[in-house]
Backbone:
């Protein structure tokens, strides 16, 4: 099960956080700081999976932005690792070449995308067209 | 794709975000020519420079945020009603501020209001805010539930989707209560849209996880399983997650999912990748769904139906074959997705552990990955291989990769990969390669990361002991361990080496010689001094013949380290000295001088001082014979589970180690050569160094599971799913003791202690059951079950929650049982406890002391009233009398205490005969109240009692009489 999904930049600023298990709000900041610290301290030669407390972190770096997923031991590391990329490709398709700014300014939309892909800590949809369908309806309605 | 307008037209929001943004630096994911960036860089340049000091920018950010928060707060509080758009804007801002790590303590109400908006965008922001910010015990849940109810009823699929997402994200108990009945219907209804089905599946999963009791299995279960056949792969993906969780809890009910999952998997794996349209990811057909299906199959043993089994084997072979084929795409995404499926398939093969051919193929595949240039693959391959090593079919195949793994240990740049390599070496170790593996681990230890040193030390110590053919090798290895990583050698490790040396006389001389040589080093670790001190104290005589290690030289060598050591070590050395006095009379005077010196006799440390005083006295007054008896060589230690292993298990969690151990148990014969069990003299020989024996005291392993054949209870409860052990011996006695009291120890054996604490009020009660693990090893699959006969079930209602299935060594878990007495009852419920300890299955049953008299309320009454009522209850069915012999001394005070403990009031000055005891009370059940009167007449001369019970109900009189008669 996915425990949380984070997007954090190199400065340690959280750009998106989604918890699938309740974490006290004041503990979140601490957790996020620790998570990004352990990701930043790693080099390219190291693997993308970190044993962290009682769960595992799986992360990928895109320019200065880290996407970090915390999972328990029932998840397949490689599948989550590639799932992150799928998520980024969906963002890329929707925002046409996505940047950190897009994520900041369209947080609600990024959340919609993520909610379409992950629900209750489980991967629920991986088909790009279907992930974006509700957003496209939304865009049509606001036009 | 439409050009996305940044900020979605909400200008205020965009300005705010860019303000905050200006305090920070620019970060981009992939785009370089983002036109927007130009706008912001202008903003930036107006701020002066990009090198605004970090502290300053943080300060400015906080200032700006506080300003914005104040603004929003005043807007929300203002008189003017806000329109949906402004609410949405402000809620969006709050969300952004929250993400920056600031606490948001308002706005919840506004967000809830947005939920009832008819505009999708506003509703969506409302739901988003709630799922990010509202936790499951918020007071707002009721309002939110209302909005969700409306949306679910709206039949608008997008609204339904939002509402379901919200339940899945928040999932509180209150939500479960409100929607647990509704969601299964939505899930299996024929006319539900696919996307809504997906959400409903995971929503149900959430409710099942938080409140399983509210999600009853029912007609929908079989229909859920059939979602695996759904045309739509998205629905299958969601359903598989739900079914996997349900199947883990109710394997029988979801058994049919196996064949459906296999056929689904087979269709995916063997399809040409174009068949699955959009679910194909870089030429890999539905990789995430495949992974989930393979995971689901890991909830079950290999399929029994040969056709299904054949089809599954075919699938797994296809997956393995594909890994060998040339890739359909050079893109890394292709191989990643393919490998995700491959690793999951290998997990399934290992889980089934039944097809030697597949296991060996899996092993070869992983072997290839061990040399792959991608670190991720090497890491995962090492991890999978670790589990593969414990299968008897593939153990040998894994061993062929030893050189590669050792090489990984030396060359990997990532500590977590090296850690996996250590794990794998540990797992693949057996007698044939132990020397090599231990040597490699030792040499790695010299440069190993500090974070994993202790674990490596434990592993080396365990392997060295387990596979030692030659105990001189074992002693050398442990001494090397102390030399290389003395700081990480925990007490368990050096205790263990002493246990082994003491238990094996063929190695004692060698051990003495080796520690003596090791102690020659100018700087040696304190742990070495401890081991050396202890061993020379016991076996120094074995090397004393050599003039190079004469008694005096031995003593001087040890004493030269004395002043550099900590207090516990010095205490140990003092014990060694007194042992020397016994072993070598020629150094007695020297040692007495040392003991007599002020630095010993007047040492500030009370332990050292006491030892010095006592040892000095002992050496002066005791005759040689007495000295020889008191200071006799330590008796062999009782064979017990290695304390090191216990420690490693604790460190690594139960699964990793236990499984390996269990799997390997058959392969490794007992290498300790089973010394005689400790003679009773261990206790009667007051050795001065006896305190060393407190070796983390693991109690000796139990003789085995209690005999579990044909107890009477098994027949009585033959419809219960698993055989229940007959009642533990002594259970009846303990049961009787609890009739008159509520707290105490109900059961205790070498492994487990069960304590009770209960309270009763009228017809309700609550019992706290405490299960204490007395060992240092985890209990696994710990399942206590309350068993009531059908008859009892209708009269007594018990409710409890399952406890955590693992109980750590030394830990205690608590279970609460809520009790209601529906009607009067006679039998007692049985508490059956099943768990795994080490490799053995344990099964214990005890009678739970919930008895009718617990629902007694005492009633005070005067003598007159008592006899009036006594007369009213005079029909023969209402009275039960018992005359019995006293089993305990007839003490008035104790008897009084027992009657009060029984629950009735003790009425003084009622009976004309002051020696008699009279009590009164009311038994409360859900349906009725039953008045009870009792009279106990002791006859001291005959040592007999006569007990008379009168109640309005015969069964009650009978039961109370039986219960109370047992007490005297």
Residues:
């Amino acid at each position: 099960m996915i425990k949380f999904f984070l997007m954090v930049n190199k400065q340690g600023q959280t750009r998106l956080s989604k918890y699938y298990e309740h974490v006290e709000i004041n503990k979140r900041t601490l957790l996020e700081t620790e998570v990004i610290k352990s990701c930043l301290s790693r080099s390219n030669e190291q693997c993308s999976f970190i044993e962290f407390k009682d769960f595992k972190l799986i992360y990928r770096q895109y320019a200065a932005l880290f996407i970090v997923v915390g999972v328990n031991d029932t998840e397949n590391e490689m599948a989550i690792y590639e799932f992150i990329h799928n998520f980024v490709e969906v963002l890329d398709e929707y925002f046409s070449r996505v940047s950190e700014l897009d994520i900041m300014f369209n947080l609600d939309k990024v959340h919609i995308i993520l909610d379409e892909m992950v629900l209750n800590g489980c991967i629920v949809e991986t088909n790009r067209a279907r992930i974006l369908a509700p957003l496209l309806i939304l865009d049509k309605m606001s036009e | 794709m439409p050009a996305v307008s940044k900020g979605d037209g909400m200008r205020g929001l965009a300005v705010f975000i860019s303000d905050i943004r200006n305090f920070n630096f620019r970060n981009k994911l992939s785009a370089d020519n983002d036109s927007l960036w130009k706008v912001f860089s202008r903003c930036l340049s107006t701020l002066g420079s990009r090198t605004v000091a970090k502290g300053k920018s943080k300060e400015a950010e906080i200032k700006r945020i506080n300003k914005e928060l104040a603004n929003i707060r005043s807007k929300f509080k203002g008189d003017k009603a806000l329109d949906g758009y402004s609410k949405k804007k402000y809620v969006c801002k709050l969300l952004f501020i929250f993400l920056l790590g600031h606490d948001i303590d308002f706005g919840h109400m506004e967000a809830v209001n947005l939920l009832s908006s008819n505009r999708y965008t506003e509703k969506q922001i409302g739901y988003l805010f709630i799922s990010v910010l509202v936790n499951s015990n918020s007071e707002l849940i009721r309002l939110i539930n209302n909005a969700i109810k409306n949306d679910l009823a709206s039949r608008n699929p997008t609204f339904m989707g939002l509402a379901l997402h919200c339940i899945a994200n928040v999932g509180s108990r209150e939500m479960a209560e409100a929607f647990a009945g509704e969601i299964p219907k939505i899930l299996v209804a024929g006319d539900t849209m696919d996307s809504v089905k997906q959400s409903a599946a995971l929503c149900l999963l959430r409710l099942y996880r938080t409140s399983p009791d509210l999600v009853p299995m029912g007609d929908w279960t079989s229909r859920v399983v059939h979602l695996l056949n759904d045309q739509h792969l998205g629905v299958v993906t969601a359903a598989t997650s739900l079914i996997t969780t349900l199947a883990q809890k109710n394997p029988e009910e979801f058994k049919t999912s196996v064949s459906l999952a296999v056929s689904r998997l087979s269709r995916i794996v063997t399809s040409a990748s174009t068949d699955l349209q959009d679910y194909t990811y870089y030429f890999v057909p539905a990789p995430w769904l495949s992974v989930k299906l393979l995971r689901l199959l890991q909830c079950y043993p290999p399929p029994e139906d040969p056709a299904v089994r054949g089809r599954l084997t075919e699938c797994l072979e296809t997956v393995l074959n594909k890994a060998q084929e040339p890739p359909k795409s050079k893109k890394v995404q292709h191989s990643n997705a393919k490998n995700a499926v491959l690793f999951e398939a290998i997990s399934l093969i290992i889980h089934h552990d039944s097809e030697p051919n597949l296991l060996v193929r899996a092993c070869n595949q992983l072997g290839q990955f061990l040399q792959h240039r991608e670190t991720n693959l090497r890491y995962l391959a090492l991890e999978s291989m670790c589990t593969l090593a414990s299968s008897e079919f593939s153990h040998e195949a894994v061993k062929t990769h030893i050189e590669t793994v050792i090489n990984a240990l030396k060359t990997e740049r990532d500590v977590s990969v090296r850690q996996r390599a250590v794990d794998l070496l540990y797992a693949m170790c057996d007698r044939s390669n132990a020397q090599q593996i231990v040597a490699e681990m030792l040499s790695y230890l010299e440069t190993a990361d500090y974070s994993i040193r202790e674990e490596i030390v434990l592993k080396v110590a365990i392997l060295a002991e387990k596979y030692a053919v030659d105990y001189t090798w074992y002693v050398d290895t442990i001494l090397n361990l102390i030399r290389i990583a003395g700081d990480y050698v925990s007490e368990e490790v050096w205790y263990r080496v002493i246990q082994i040396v003491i238990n094996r006389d063929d190695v004692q001389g060698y051990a003495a010689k080796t520690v003596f040589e090791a102690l020659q080093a100018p700087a040696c670790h304190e742990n070495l001094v401890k081991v050396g001190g202890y061993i020379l104290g016991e076996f120094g005589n074995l090397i004393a013949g050599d003039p190079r290690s004469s008694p005096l030289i031995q003593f001087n060598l040890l004493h030269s380290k004395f002043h550099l050591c900590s207090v516990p070590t010095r205490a140990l050395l003092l014990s060694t000295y007194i042992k020397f006095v016994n072993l070598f009379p020629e150094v007695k005077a020297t040692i007495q001088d040392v003991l007599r010196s002020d630095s010993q006799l007047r040492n500030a440390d009370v332990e050292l001082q006491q030892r010095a005083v006592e040892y000095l006295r002992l050496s002066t007054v005791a005759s040689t014979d007495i000295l020889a008896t008191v200071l006799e060589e330590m008796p062999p230690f009782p064979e017990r589970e290695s304390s090191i292993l216990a420690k490693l298990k604790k460190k690594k969690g139960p699964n990793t180690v236990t499984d390996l151990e269990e799997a390997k148990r058959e392969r490794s014969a007992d290498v300790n050569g089973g010394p005689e069990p400790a003679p009773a003299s261990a206790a009667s020989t007051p050795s001065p160094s006896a305190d060393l024996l407190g070796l983390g005291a693991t109690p000796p392993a139990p003789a085995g599971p209690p005999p579990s054949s044909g107890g009477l209870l098994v027949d009585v409860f033959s419809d219960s799913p698993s055989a229940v052990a007959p009642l533990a011996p002594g259970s009846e006695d303990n049961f009787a003791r609890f009739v008159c009291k509520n707290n105490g120890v109900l059961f205790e054996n070498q492994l487990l202690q069960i304590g009770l604490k209960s309270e009763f009020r009228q017809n309700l009660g609550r019992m706290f059951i405490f299960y204490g693990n007395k060992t240092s090893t985890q209990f696994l699959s710990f399942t206590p079950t309350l068993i009531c006969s059908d008859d009892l079930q209708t009269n007594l209602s018990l409710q409890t929650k399952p406890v955590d299935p693992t109980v750590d060594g030394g830990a205690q878990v608590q279970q609460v049982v809520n009790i209601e007495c529906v009607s009067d009852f006679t039998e007692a419920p049985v508490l059956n406890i099943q768990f795994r300890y080490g490799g053995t299955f344990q099964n214990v049953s005890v009678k739970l002391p919930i008895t009718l008299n617990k629902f007694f309320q005492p009633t005070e009454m005067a003598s007159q009233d008592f006899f009036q009522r006594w007369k009213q209850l005079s029909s023969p069915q209402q009275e039960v009398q018992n005359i019995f012999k006293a089993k305990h001394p007839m003490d008035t005070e104790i008897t009084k205490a027992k009657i009060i403990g029984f629950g009735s009031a003790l009425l003084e000055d009622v009976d004309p005969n002051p020696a008699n005891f009279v009590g009164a009370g009311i038994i409360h059940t859900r349906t009725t109240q039953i008045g009870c009167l009792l009279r106990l007449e002791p006859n001291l001369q005959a040592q007999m009692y006569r007990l008379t019970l009168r109640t309005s109900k015969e069964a009650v009189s009978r039961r109370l009489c039986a219960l109370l008669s047992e007490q005297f």
